[in-house]
C-alpha cells in the first residue's frame, strides 16, 4: 500500500438530506434479507469460540479487512475476546502475523452477522467500525451503514461504539443517525492516530496527510430498536 491516497470526493457538502427518512424507514421496516449459509456457519464458529473462552467480554471489529486491528485490539485488551468480521476472503487470508489466542477472524456478511449476534443476545463491550467503505456518491446513501436497513441492529447491540473515517461527512451522518435512532448524543471529532495506527487504511490516510475523524458513543443494549413483523 502506498503512502499516497486520494481523499474522498463527493458532491455532498454536508449530511445527505434524505438521511432522516432512511433512518426512520430502517426503524420501522423489518429487514427481511435471508441469512446467507456461510454467515450462519461463521456465526456458529464464532459462538463456539466465545463459549470456549468463558465469560471474556466481547470486542467486535466489524469490517476488519486484513485483521490488523483485530490483532492490535487483542493485544491491547488481553482479557477480552476480539472478533474480526469481514466478507473478503482475500483480505482475511493475508499474512499479518500470528493471531493472538484471544482473537478470531471470520468471513461473513455483516448485514447478517449483526442480526444473528443480536438474536443470540450478544452484548459487545466495544464495537469498532474502522474506515468502512464510504460510498461517497449521493445516490449510494443506502449502502453507508447509517443509511442501511441494518442500522438498528448495529446500534441495538450496544456497548462502546467507535467509528473512524477519512470522510468527515460519513461520521457526521452516522452521528445524526445514532441520535435519531437512540436519542443518545454523538459528536464527530478530529482524530490523530499517532504512531500506533490501528489499521492499514488508517496508516495510508494518515501518511498521505488526510484528516481523520471519529465518533465514540456508549450505547445501551436495546434490541427493541429493531422493527419486527
Ligand atoms: C475500506 S475497508 C477497511 C478495512 C479495515 N477496517 C481497515 O481500516 O484497514 C472496508 C472493509 O469492510 C468490508 N466490508 C464491507 N461491507 C461488508 C459486509 N457487508 N460484510 C463484511 N465486511 C464488509 C470490506 O470487505 C473491507 O475489508
UniProtKB/TrEMBL annotation:
Q: Which reaction does it catalyse?
A: guanosine(46) in tRNA + S-adenosyl-L-methionine = N(7)-methylguanosine(46) in tRNA + S-adenosyl-L-homocysteine
PANTHER family per the UniProt record, alphabetical: 3-DEOXY-D-MANNO-OCTULOSONIC-ACID TRANSFERASE/TRNA GUANINE-N 7 - -METHYLTRANSFERASE (PTHR23417), PENTACOTRIPEPTIDE-REPEAT REGION OF PRORP DOMAIN-CONTAINING PROTEIN (PTHR23417:SF14)
Keyword Transmembrane helix included in the entry's annotation: no
Q: Which Pfam families match?
A: Methyltransf_4 (PF02390)
> Which keywords does this chain's UniProt record carry?
Methyltransferase, S-adenosyl-L-methionine, Transferase, tRNA processing
Q: Which SUPFAM superfamilies match?
A: S-adenosyl-L-methionine-dependent methyltransferases
Q: Which GO terms describe its molecular function?
A: methyltransferase activity
Q: Biological process GO annotation list? A: methylation
- State the top-level EC class: transferase
- Stated name of the protein: tRNA (guanine(46)-N(7))-methyltransferase
**Organism encoding this protein:** Halomonas pelophila
Could you tell me where the Polar residues compositional bias lies? 1-13
Give the start-end ranges of region Disordered. 1-21
Q: What is its EC number?
A: 2.1.1.33
Described purpose of this protein according to its UniProt entry? Catalyzes the formation of N(7)-methylguanine at position 46 (m7G46) in tRNA.
